[in-house]
Every structure is written in C-alpha cells, then in structure tokens.
Please model this.
Amino acid sequence: MTPATPRTIAVRRRRPGRRLSRMRIEYPPWAKSGAPLPIYDVAMARQLLAMTAELPDSKRGLLIVLAEHRRALHNLITTAEPTLLRPSPN
Model:
C-alpha cells in the first residue's frame, strides 16, 4: 500500500514545502462517494496513524481526526481474537 492509494483520511499541508502552511484533511474515495464505512484492520490503522501524524489547525478538522482514530481503535478491539479480550485469571 502506498500513500498514492490511501484507504483512510490524511492530514496534509495546503502548500507543500512551506513550513507555516495550514493543515487540511484529505478524504479517501470511499468517503467522497458515500460508500459504507470500511472496517479497520491493522494495516489500515497503521496507515491512519502515519497519514495523520500532524494535526489540522481547525477544531472541526481535529474532531474529524480524533473521531476516525476512535473508530479505528474500536474496530481493532472488536475484531481482536476472543482470547485477547478475556480477563486474565487472578
């Protein structure tokens, strides 16, 4: 998987190369087309973390990134093996 084919949202500078440029959110094709939300797997969650290393300037953008991180974490936890979710015996 390459950054040219993103499966999740990304945060990028509006003007690449400019240090003080504002950050913006880029959406993957499934978000633009209104398709159902994909289920995050480990590879997709890793891509999300890599592509949102910097946070957007706006409150709205920050909330979008945080909500996507929350959804990815929820998907990873709910799809984990049942042995990982069992409490350890004391």
